[in-house]
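sanity check this:
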Amino acid sequence: MSDERRRFTRVPFDAATRLQQDDWSVPVQLVDISLRGLLVAQPADWDSRRNTEPFVAVIDLDEGSEISMEIRLMHAANGVLGFRCEHTDLDSVSHLRRLLALNLGDANLLDRELAALL
């Protein structure tokens, strides 16, 4: 396992999530999320030819807010797809930070991870 993988804590989270690429979109089951990426269950109709281009992941949260990330596929194995976050907007980072803070229960750990990300 690389140092980068160890630096970012993954939090199991279940929310309506979809992957988008150009005019294509597919709902996926979110397995976990971190400041650096996300893991989803591979959809049944997954087309591996899409793997070379970036995706956008949209995670719907309560109150009509969402987390939107530009992501790149890093691995596909055992029925899951692992994506690395390439870019996200400030609102999405704020929502993600709040989600992680609630689930980690350790503000110091979250601050260290944010510092490592920046």
